[in-house]
Amino acid sequence: MKKFISLLLLVLTIAAVGRTSYMAHSRYMKASDSYVRAAVVLLKTAQGSCTGVQVKSETKGLYVLTAAHCRGLLTDGRISAFNEAGQETELAFIDEDDAADLMLLTGSSIFKSVDVASAVGLHDKVHTMTHGAGVPT
Question: Which helix (H) or strand (E) holds 37?
Answer without folding.
Answer: helix 33-37
